[in-house]
Amino acid sequence: MPASLTPSPAAQAKALGHLRVLDLSRVLAGPWCSQNLADLGADVIKVERPGSGDDTRAWGPPYAKDAQGKDTSEAAYYLAANRGKRSITVDIAKPEGQALIRELAKHADVVLENYKVGQLKRYGLDYESLKAVKPDLVYCSVTGFGQDGPYAHRAGYDFLIQGMGGLMSVTGERDDLPGGGPQKAGVALTDLMTGMYSTIAILAALTHRDRTGEGQYIDMALLDVQVAMLANMGSNYLNSGKSPKRWGNAHANIVPYQTFACADGHIIVATGNDGQYQKFVEVGGRTELAGDPRFMTNPLRVQNRDVLVPILAEMVKSKTRDEWISQLEEVGVPCGPINDLHDVFQNPQVQARGIVTETPHPTAGKVKLVRSPMRMSATPTDGGAAPPLLGQHTEEILRDVLGHSAQDIAALRAKGIL
Fold this sequence. Notes:
Keywords: Transferase
Distance between the termini: 23 Å
Strand order of the largest sheet: 5-2-1-6-7-8
Shape: elongated
Structural class: alpha/beta
Organism: Pseudoduganella violacea
Number of strands: 13
Number of helices: 18
EC number: 2.8.3.16
Helix content: 25-40%
Number of domains: 2
Radius of gyration: 26 Å
CATH topology of the largest domain: Rossmann fold
Strand content: 15-25%
Largest sheet: 6 strands, parallel
GO molecular function: formyl-CoA transferase activity
CATH superfamily of the largest domain: Crotonobetainyl-coa:carnitine coa-transferase, domain 1
Protein name: Formyl-CoA transferase
């Protein structure tokens, strides 16, 4: 039996160091899930197309730069979702490549894929086919619309799903204000949340397997996730029959809970209760607003927001951003600046938490990555290995996991399988 089937002591110290994940996914939702699992210590084998690999490898600029400041082949987008993994190139369209994937599945706990519905069945790499070689396998499929329903065979992309799933109907400035209209989130939020939900589902399925010995199939759909993450907005509709509208940087159910322009920039003020509202207006020198019967409770402030918010907006202009933040923090009113990413990564709290790590990289020398936010006392995550070069670990995986000889591997390369 290949030695690597027994996890090393270092791997066993990680929460998921006893697990192996065969990752057939590309782009963002699937890789975000497998990166979570890698952060927690799982051995994630990323299977990529020979010659090109994951689509996001070419989604640049920007690219990581080498010691001379020249672009490497590693797009920053790809680097964001693939740390801690090992890359193997396999042509799964060829029978020999399909056989390799089936071999690897025998030594895996989890298979993750995001191919179109039915595509992997043509290759004998669907759940039923791999379950035959590994009965307790946990197999997670990520698609745009799920494995059934009238849209099942449609391609699904984050931007489309943000629109179809209602997020853009509640995101953006109010229609009656300048710049009003639907707006997508600034990051691929539906993809990222699908990756997070997939992580949770996989861990739950593994717990079930460990109790019962039974594997299972997980059907994850971007549209399902988008509808689920509407949260209070979805509940508002279901309990009122009225579609919520866009509020820009304001809140549908809380006032004041929004951005304000101050003397030299913008701040966010988020008053979650009546006491915080009273302190806010007192700091602004408008104590009469605290006792005004139109504004004394949050439901009244929501009802009368069109009267109150212009008064507050004029009040906020009387001080600078730093004055407001300092004075509101003193009295316990939640507030903060609106940072660009330079400000974010220079923020003393971000720096104190060590969120950015520098990791050795084969071509860039070092790459800066954002570490996992999961902080665990007994099984901590670390910065993880740098996102792998295309096919970087092909020989290592075939040799150590499957026991293939150098001659076998050379023959597969000669046939264009790797």
